[in-house]
């Protein structure tokens, strides 16, 4: 910009009137600061891998930008890591799926507004040669434990990992990552499914990632449609007091937009392989 302004007073422009020069400088400054302002119109969402990997957040964020000209950057993380990121004041929005952790986050003053926004469910997947009827999730996990069948755990403190541990608690079985039958991989959902498929083991997956996952020639759903596998997603507006640089104004716009009929339609119509992945349930 200094270079352009300098031109106004160069030898070739010395006859330019002061008024004309001032107007051009004002015009250049307007463009310059407008560019800075637009660059600052950005918010960060710390979210789960399932909302990002399936493409849902890309769709929603593109529509939000069209409407408000606010860029949305997504940090695709496990729920535990996403919550820690928000606690550190490094994200304006939290979109995760572990209600007890979300409530604790709110009670400790890290969030100012929380809404249950959509849901799907978890499925227990395993080898295709498993022909046993699933009577309950607990029964299936007990069967895995008794027979020492290989179980692949995400082991990454994600919402899915936390749900898995809750499922083991229902059986009173104390899982130990040092056991050969229980493999804790510390990976995201897609990588965990890849390992389960390769080793023909069992794992817990959110249904949306399972539907979108392609490399599953050795796997199938072995247990589903039981109440403990319900998977609720919550969206939280992070407390701006955690970081003075948080863009609270635009984050609030995003939260309010998420509660509209427009977003309801976008979420309910979002599909992979012809199947609906998420179900909007804000009310």
Verbal overview:
With 283 residues, the chain is of the alpha/beta class. The chain folds into three domains: 2-39; 41-119 and 232-280, 3-Layer(aba) Sandwich (D-Maltodextrin-Binding Protein, domain 2); 121-229, Periplasmic binding protein-like II (D-Maltodextrin-Binding Protein, domain 2, 3-Layer(aba) Sandwich). Helices cover 45% and strands 22% of the residues. Strands 1, 2, 3, 4, 7, 8, 9 and 12 form an eight-stranded mixed β-sheet that branches. A two-stranded parallel ribbon has the order 5-6. The protein has a two-stranded antiparallel sheet with strand order 10-11. The longest helix has 23 residues, at 18-40. Mean pLDDT is 89; it is low at 1-16 and 29-39.
What is the CATH topology classification name of the largest domain? D-Maltodextrin-Binding Protein, domain 2
Rg measurement, Å: 25 Å
Domain count: 3
Give the overall silhouette. globular
Number of helices: 12
Task: Supply the CATH architecture of the largest domain.
Answer: 3-Layer(aba) Sandwich
Uncertain segments are: 1-16, 29-39
The CATH top-level class label of the largest domain: Alpha Beta
Indicate the proportion of strand residues: 15-25%
Provide key terms for this protein:
12 helices, 22% strand, D-Maltodextrin-Binding Protein, domain 2, eight-stranded mixed sheet, single chain, disordered N terminus, two-stranded parallel sheet, 12 strands, alpha/beta, 283 residues
Put the structure in a nutshell.
The protein has helices at about 1-10, 20-40, 50-55, 55-70, 80-85, 100-105, 135-145, 160-170, 190-200, 205-210, 250-260, 260-270; strands at about 40-45, 70-75, 95, 110-125, 150-155, 180-185, 205, 220-225, 230-240, 270, 275, 280. With about 280 residues, it is an alpha/beta fold. Strands 1, 2, 3, 4, 7, 8, 9 and 12 form an eight-stranded mixed β-sheet that branches. It has a two-stranded parallel ribbon with strand order 5-6.
């Amino acid at each position: 910009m200094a270079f352009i302004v300098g031109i106004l007073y160069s030898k070739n422009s010395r006859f330019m009137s002061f008024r004309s020069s001032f107007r051009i400088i004002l015009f250049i400054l307007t463009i310059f600061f407008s560019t800075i302002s637009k660059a600052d119109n950005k918010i960060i969402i710390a979210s789960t891998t399932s909302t990002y990997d399936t493409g849902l957040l890309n769709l929603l964020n593109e529509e939000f930008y069209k409407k408000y000209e606010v860029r949305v950057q997504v940090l695709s993380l496990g729920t535990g890591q996403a919550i820690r990121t928000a606690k550190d004041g490094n994200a304006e929005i939290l979109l995760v799926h572990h209600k007890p952790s979300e409530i604790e986050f709110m009670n400790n003053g890290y969030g100012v507004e929380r809404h249950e926004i959509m849901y799907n469910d978890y499925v227990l997947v395993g080898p295709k040669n498993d022909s046993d009827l699933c009577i309950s999730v607990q029964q299936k996990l007990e069967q895995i434990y008794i027979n020492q069948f290989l179980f692949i755990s995400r082991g990454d403190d994600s919402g899915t990992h936390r749900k898995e541990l809750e499922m083991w608690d229902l059986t009173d079985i104390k899982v130990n990552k040092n056991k050969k039958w229980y493999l804790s991989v510390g990976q995201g959902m897609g990588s965990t499914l890849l390992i389960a498929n390769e080793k023909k083991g069992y794992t817990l997956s959110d249904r949306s990632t399972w539907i979108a996952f392609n490399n599953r020639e050795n796997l199938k759903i072995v247990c589903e449609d039981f109440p403990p596998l319900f998977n609720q997603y919550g969206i939280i507006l992070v407390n701006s007091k955690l970081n003075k640089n948080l863009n609270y104004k635009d984050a609030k716009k995003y939260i309010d937009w998420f509660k509209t009929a427009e977003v309801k339609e976008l979420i309910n119509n979002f599909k992979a392989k012809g199947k609906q992945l998420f179900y909007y349930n804000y009310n």
